[in-house]
Amino acid sequence: MTSTVSATNIANEAASIASRYIAAWNEPDAARRRALITTAFTPEASYVDPMMSNAGHDGLDAMIGAVQQQFAGLRFKLHGKQDGHNDVVRFSWALAADGAEPVAIGTDIAVVAADGRISSVTGFLDAMNLPV
Q: Is residue 5 domain-resident?
């Protein structure tokens, strides 16, 4: 379920919004992942980073599923502090196997709709350490 988020309280909601986002990226079960996507993203939400882009619940679901296949056994974790102002939330993440060094660290900037769901994400890769 979503809640109304205003410019005055988005800083307080930044951690919750980022946590819902990360939960969708980590969910391996297709039905549960789709439910998390519906909770975290507006129906027309878009995503873009240096390596991929997609939009809508179907597109986001397919993209997340493909990333999970490519990086099997790895999980996203929030990294550092989440913050926000106006209708924007910024947070960083690390992608790693449990107990291992991250293979990637990034920062995402999410625009949040009035209902508290993400309407767009622009992702940045801060560091990559892919195994050879």
A: no
Could you give the angle at which helices 56-70 and 30-40 cross, rounded to 10 degrees?
Answer: 130
Q: Encoding tokens for residue 92?
A: 């960083």
Distance of CA 32 to the CA centre of its chain: 15
Q: Which residues contact 104 (CB under 8 A, 6 or more apart)?
A: 94, 95, 125, 127, 128, 129, 130
The CATH number assigned to the domain holding 19 equals 3.10.450.50
| Residue type for position 1 | M
| Number of domains making up the chain | 1
Record the tokens describing residue 50, joined without a space.
Answer: 């240096």
Q: Is residue 50 part of a domain?
A: yes
The 10s digit of each residue's pLDDT in 12-38 is 999 999 999 999 999 999 999 999 999
Strand positions, DSSP E, the chain = 41-48, 53-55, 75-85, 88-96, 104-112, 118-128
Does this model's pTM top 0.70? My answer is yes
CA–CA separation, 108 and 60 (whole Å):
15
